[in-house]
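Hi team,

Filling in the usual template for the complex we talked about on Friday. All components are listed, including any nucleic acid strands or ligand strings, so the model treats them as one assembly.

SUBMITTER: L.P.
PURPOSE: interface mapping
COMPONENTS: three
RESIDUES: 990
SEQUENCES:
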Amino acid sequence: MNNTANGRPQAIWVFGDYRNYFQNRVTLQLLAKARELAAALNSEVSALVFGHKVDEYVKEYIAHGADRVYVVDHVSLKYYLTETYTRLLEHLATEHKPEIILVGATNFGREMAARAASRLGTGLTADCVGLTIDEKGRFIQTAPSFGGNLLAEILMPEHRPQMATVRPGAFAELPHDNERRGEIVRLNLPPDLPPERVRLLKSRRLPHREQRLEKASVVVCGGRGMGSKKKFKNLLELCRLLEGELGATRPVVYAGWAGEPSLVGQAGKQIKPQILFSFGISGAIQHTAGINAQFIVAVNKNPQALMMKMADVGIVADANQACLALIRELRERLRE
Amino acid sequence: MELNPCMKHQLVRKTVREFAEDVLRPIAAEIDHDARFPWEVVEKMRALNYFGLQAPPEYGGAGLDTISYAIVIEEVCRVSAGVGLCLAVHNSVALHPVLTFGNQEQKERWAPALATGERIGAFCLTEANAGSDAGAVETQAVREGAEYVINGTKIFVSNGGVCGLALIFAKTDPEDPRRGASVLAVEKERPGFMVGEIEDLSGMRCNPVSSLFLEDCRVPEENLLGRLGDGLKIGLATLDTGRLGIAAQALGIAQGAFEAALKYAKERQQFGKPISSFQTIQNYLADMATDIDAARALLYRACALKDAGQAFSTQASMAKLFCSKTAREVTNLALQIHGGCGYSKEYEVERYFREAKATEIYEGTSEVQRMVIARGILSRPG
Amino acid sequence: MNIVIFLKQVPMVTDLPWDPKTGQMRREAAEGMMDPACKHALEAALCLKDEHGGRITVITMGPPAAEEVLREALALGADLGVLVSDPRLAGADTPATSYTLSLAVRAVCPEFDLLMLGCHSVDSETGQVGPHLAEELNLPGPAYVESVQLVDHAIRVERVCDNFLETLEIDLPALVTVTTQSYQPRPVPLGGVERAFSQGEVITLNATDLRADLKRVGFSGSAGRILRVYAPRAEQKGVLLKGAPKKCVQELLSRYGDRLGALMGKDLGEAK
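RESULT (copied from the run log):
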C-alpha cells in the first residue's frame, strides 16, 4: 500500500504511550515537538490513546499540546497489547490519513510502530534525536547509528504517513496549560479485530533498584587505565561521595575487577546520567554506544583517547591518581 | 598461492583473536610477572580444541590445516607468548610426533588425551652438555626384559612443569652415531620421573620451563616411538614442524609489539604533533610493517608446502630464522618508539621485547637454522 | 523443532574509520563480525536445540563476505546457512530488508517453528526488522526477549518491556527478538570452524531465486532517503586540564563545581 502525498498537509499524530507516566515523559515531549512541526506545516496535532479508563491521559495530552485526541477505551485494552494496538493504529491511520506519526522509542513503541509501518506499507525512522521541517517544507528526521557516533538526516519523499520513533529525552515538553482546549473523538473497537496471539501470563514492575545504573544521574565508569583490581576499588569511594553508580568497560569485567551488572555499553547497560566521570577509558565504541550523558569528565593519560574527545572536561593524568585526588578534594569540601 | 586469506583463515583468526583479547589480555601482564601458569584459561582452551589443532576429529582434534595452525599460534602469542609457547610445543613437538610416528595402539593410547589437553605434552632433547650438538646427549635408555630403563637429566623443557606426557630423546646404542638414539614416551606417573625446578626466565615466564630428572625410570617397550634407532629421524622431522610453530610465535610477538607502537605513535604528542608524523618514526613503522609482512609470507609458504606433502625443511628453517629476527628487531623498535614509557612495566611492549629474544634461541638457534638452510641449498643439484 | 535465525554482519570497529573530509564512515575499511545481539539470539537457539533437538537454519542478507557469519554459526552448531546476496537488494531500509528475508525463509524453511533475531544491531540500531518480519509473515513477534522456553507447541518467554518484566506465552509458529542481557554466547570451537568449511552447507540465493518483487527490495524499494550523514563528535569539544592530578582536580572543581553541583542536585562545597 503506497500512499502518496496529496497537496494539503494532514495532521501530525502522536501515539500516547502513557505507561510509567511519571518517569516516561516521551509523549509529552513529542506533543511539544509536534506543535512545532504543525506550526511550520500549517497543520494540527492529534494524540492517540488506547486503553481502559484513560481519561486523565486524554486531558493531559490536550493540556500539553494536542488539538485532538482519538480515544479507544475498552476493557480488553487494559494492558498494552502489541498486535491489537498495531491494528488500531492502522485502522485509524487508514481512515484519517495523517501526514506524520510520531511514536516514543520505548520498547513497546519501537515494536508496535514497526509492525504498524509494515501494515501501512510505509517507512519508519528509528530512535530520532532531531525532527525539523526544512526550507522546502520537507520533514527531516535525524537518526543516530553506531551508538550515536554517526547521525543521518533522512526524509521520505513519497511514502505516507511518514513514521518515526523518537528517543525519550530528545525534546523538551511544553508546560501544562489548563486553558488549552481540544477535541476528544471517542471510537469503538473495530469489529474485525483479530484476537491477540500473545498471552500475558505475568507482568511485574521492575523494582527501582534493578535499574540503578540505567537511571542514575551520576555515573562513575572505570576502565583498564585504573591499573589494577585494587586501584579500581577506589572508584567505589568516589561513587559514595558523589552518590553515583559504578560502571565498567568489558575488559575490566572480564578481568574480574567489576561485576557483569556494571558493564556499560552495547552488550551491557545503557546509561543516561547528568554527569559521567570516566576514569582510564579509551572510548571504544562498544562502550561509548551505551552512553548518553549531559556532561562528561574524563581522565586519561592519553589526551587523544576518544573518551577525552567526547568529554566536556578532560584531565590528562593517571586515572587512579586523579581518582584519589578527587576523593581527597571532595572529602574536604563536603566536610567529611 | 592465494593472494588474500581465504574465509576460513579469516574466521580462524577472528575467533582466536576474540578469545585471546577476552580471556588472555586481562591477565597477560600478571601471569608473566608472577610466572603463573593460567590453568583457568587452559581449561577453556581445552574445550575449544586448542590442544588438538591439527589432530584428526576422531581423537578430539580440530583437524585444521597448517596455515590455520600458524594463525592460532600467532594470535595467541600476540597477546601472551608464554601461553602460545605451551600450545606450539604441545601441538607440534609432542602431539604431532605421536600422530606421525606412533603405531595404531600408541595413537589410541595417547592421542585422545593429548588432543583434548587432558595431558599436556613436552619434547625433551636439550641437556646440560647437549644444546645445538644433539649428538652429545647423555640420557640413556637401556632395555631390560620388556621394559626400558631411562637415566638422565633434560633441561629447558617447555611445559616441563605441567606436562603429562614427555617424549624423551635418549641414547639406546651409544656406539652407533647414526641410529644410536631413540624416542621414548614417558607418562608423568611413571616412577623415576621427576620435574625439577622451574626456570626463572627473562620472558614467557608463565610457561613452566623446567628440568626433568629420569632416575631408573621404567617404561614398557610399547612406549618406544617408531623403531629403535629412529631418534634422529623423529627428532629432525619433529623440529621441522616445531619451527613452524616458533616462527608463528615470533610473528605474533612482532605483530603485538607493532600494533602497540603504532597506537602509541598516533597518540603521543611532542613538539605539538603526534610522533607518527615525524619521518624517523615513519621509517621505523615502515620497516616494521614490511618485515612482518615478509615474515608472514615466508611462514605461510612453508606451511603450504607441508600441507601439499612437499619437502619443507629448508623453508621452515628460513621462516623460523627470519620470523625470530623480525621479532627481535620489531620489538626493539617498538620499545624505542615508546621512549621512556617503553622501559616501564606499565606498558606491555617491554614484555614483547623480552619474549622476542627467546625465539632466536630455542628449537634450534638461528645459527643452527643457517646450518640447515645452507645444507639444503648446497645439497641441491646443479 | 525448526528454528531459523537471521544474522547480520556488521563492521568490526572500535574506532570508526572516518573520512574527515566528507564526514562519512568508511565501511569498506572495516572487517566484519557477527552482530553481538545476533550472537545472543544464536546462543538462545543453540540452548533450545541442546535441550529439545531440532534443526537450526541461519540466514543473512549481505554481500558475499557475509557468508563468514553463516560459517561461524555452523561452527557453533547451526545446520544450514543461507546467504541472500544480490546487488539489487543493497541499500534496503528495514521494511525492504524484512520483505526480502520473509521470501528467503519461505523459500528454504517454510515449515519453521520459531524465528529468532537479535533485538537490534550495533550499526543501524533500529530494532525494526524483527517486528516488520513478524508482520510480513503474520506472526506474533515479541521483541526484547530475555529467555525462551519450549512448552508443548508454544513458547514461554520473559522479556523486559519498559520497566515491566513480562512473562508471555505464544503458540508456535512465532518470532522473537533477543537482547544481550542473557544467554552468554558460547565461544567458537576451532574444530567447529574446520567442519563449517569442510562439511558445512551454505546455499546462496539472489533476488531472482527469491522471485522478489523488485519494486519492494533494495534502495529503490525503500521509503527513506538519506540527505546527509555526519559525525557529531569528530571534533574535540571540551577543555583539557593538564598537570599534577591534585591541581587538575582543584581546577575542575573551581571552574565547574557549580555546574556539576547543579546537574547532580548536590552542593559540592567550597574550596578550602
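MY TAKE: Chain C touches chain B through 20 residues (CB under 8 Å). The longest helix of chain C spans residues 245-264.

Thanks, L.
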